[in-house]
Amino acid sequence: MKNGLAVLLVLIFLIMWLPSAEGAARIPILLYHRFGPTVSDNMTVTTPVFESHLKYLKDNGYAVIPLRQLVDYILGKGPMPPHRSVVIVVDDGHKSVYTDMLPIIKRYRIPVTLFLYPSAISNASYAMTWEQIKELKKTGLFDLQSHTYWHPNFKKDKRRLSPAEYEKFVDMQLKKSREKLERELGTKIDMLAWPFGIYDEYLTAKAARAGYIAAFTIERHSASTSDAIMALPRYLMTNADKGKAFENIINGHISN
Question: What pTM was computed for the model?
Answer without folding.
Answer: 0.88
